[in-house]
Predict the structure.
Amino acid sequence: MKQRRARLGSIAAGVAAAVLTASLPSAAQEGNWVHPKTPWGDPDLRGRWPINHMTGVPLVRPEHFGTRNTLNDEEYAIRAAQLQERNEGYDAEIQANRMGMGHWREAGQIPTRVASLIVDPPDGQFPELTELGREVSPTMGSSWFRDTWDRPEDFDVWDRCITRGLPASMFPMQYNNGIEIWQTPGYVVLRLEMIHEARIIPLDGRAPLDPAIKQWMGESRGRWEGNTLVVETTNFNGIPHMTNIGTTGSPRYNTPTSEQLKITERFTRVSDEFLEYEITVSDPVMQTRPWTAAYTWRLNNDYVIFEYACHEGNEQLRNYIETSRYERAQQGKL
């Protein structure tokens, strides 16, 4: 529809660099690239970094890859063909004078050799839920996994247009993959196309919020480590709202989160065109171990972020509920 190198010692370094180094400008590969600075002297990350080029990469690695996270030539050719077929869907609908799923699917023009977004655990698998996580998961509302609906709480907060939440908001989806970075002295803002959210991240060393203050997207604090922006997010509201993370290859069950959820992100620009992104998720209440995903962002200031016309209480929720009740009444189940 719309149109590396990671930090030393990071989990993503050996994975991402091997995949995309060949695409980096020669100056960056040779170490001659100079990181741009903002007028006030911070590393400059400003711009639009849509992640639609990663829509074909699953979150969880297919098991046959094992600890290998790079596609071979045969696997790469298959992915390239899938990407071409997806992109041709848009043109086919234009020629047929109709609109369908081809207009919803966003995909980049260049396939990647990355086998999965998850890089730790090394086999790319999603950690098991804790005993409590397994108890909570089936009780959560979601249009992804439910067959019947009677009330708004039968839907998750993404269904209800409240938030996609974290970490899900930082992963590619089939649409609305725009991410824009704004910077001012003392702040970085991440503007997300999905659910039209803006994450405001102070950099001035202020203390964290009082633990009693909880929010859907948590509260972020940032700092610079050299040219890497490190962002730590806590103070989540503990409402187990995350369901399917929503990207390709997500676990096929509801994934709850708790008040102890902590997100650590690292943003490292490695050339004029590329930025390495890494996110570590820790929730000891709901998951048995932390996990890390990493992938490369690509600058595209021509990407257009359109209005996200979704709002809580929209007609779709009522339609789901009324239709669900009608179908059950016809089957004598009410």
Residues 1-27 have pLDDT under 50 and may be disordered. Residues 13-330 form one domain. The CA atoms of residues 141 and 154 lie 4 Å apart. The chain has one domain: 13-330.
